[in-house]
Amino acid sequence: MSHTRTPTWWLSATAVLSAGLLITGCLSNDPEAVADDDDNGSGAADTAPAGDNAEPGEDVVIGFSGPNAGHGWMGAITAAAQEQGEQFEDVELRVSEGTDDVNLQISQIEQFINDEVDAIVVLPFDGAALTEVAIDAMDAGIPVVNVDREFASPFAARTTILGDNYGMGVSAGTYICERLGDQDGAVVAEIAGIDSLPLTQDRSAGFEDALSDCGLEVSNRVAADFSVAGGEEAASNLLQAAPEIDAIWNHDDDQGVGVLAAIENAGREEFFMVGGAGSANMMREIQDADSVVEATVIYPSTQAADGIRLARLLAQGRAMGDLVQVEVPREIQLYAPVVTEENVEDYLDYAFES
């Protein structure tokens, strides 16, 4: 790809986003390089020495609670968290049943507190509603790792790990600029998720900002609901309203299954499409030369798995091996890369099924 127009605000954001890459590298440090005389081999020395984070530490119990896995991305979140917990011989992972009932999720956290677990990882169905019980856990001395949907208070979590919704929009818009930036009057369409959600608003804002950098704008926009049926209905409405389109960005690959059904039913193929989230379905579409799908933007379904890693380190009093600082960071935001036919093989094995 040859696009060289990089917005100045994106350069500053990249410095923050790159912190997310440290997680995947935190297991390979040389422990001898930062060895501490007080370390008893458990990784729980008072100075929280860095080192090889994969080395076993003291046994810890971690509780995990998340929403119902009725959505492909959400199902992958829980599965990845469970798989990560199983990889550590020093971790007992207790996974609560996924629920979209706020009161039930609150009771799950209360049970973890009563059980005196060593750390809690939470992807809240509603961050604001779970803030108070998360504060209760923190007050009880149990470090909380907040995943994806933020609590309403900084006192509710020791560490927060996030995807980058704004960055998703930037990545999608930048890719479309690379393809269409020299075409005056190019028609760009957007199929959003649930408009009332801040994550949708952030994705749209990033998309608009990136397009404006190359002189493009969103010509047609509809909103769906992250479901297959909602995606099909929204895309049908869009295609009826816009007789000619050059590019579409669909925010969510799960609803993208319905979007593609609507496109097929309409017999439209004059445009290319960029997906969002990074499902295996969309990546296989990218590999299909006859598909309108050219790319998708990753919204990592590994966030809770990374949360388990961080919770383990917090519970054991350890630091991230690739950081000089002797504490786990307060917040980590993961990057939103674009997957195309050139790099799809690098991402396909880690993708979720819609």
UniProtKB/TrEMBL annotation:
Segment forming the signal sequence: 1-28
Keywords: Signal
GO cellular component, one term: cell envelope
Domain Periplasmic binding protein: start-end pairs: 62-318
Database matches in Pfam families: Peripla_BP_4
Family according to the record: Belongs to the bacterial solute-binding protein 2 family.
Region spans: Disordered: 32-56
Location of the protein in the cell: Cell envelope
UniProt keyword Signal, yes or no: yes
GO molecular function, one term: carbohydrate binding
Protein name per the record: Substrate-binding domain-containing protein
Subcellular location, principal: other
Keyword Signal among UniProt keywords: yes
UniProt-listed SUPFAM superfamilies: Periplasmic binding protein-like I
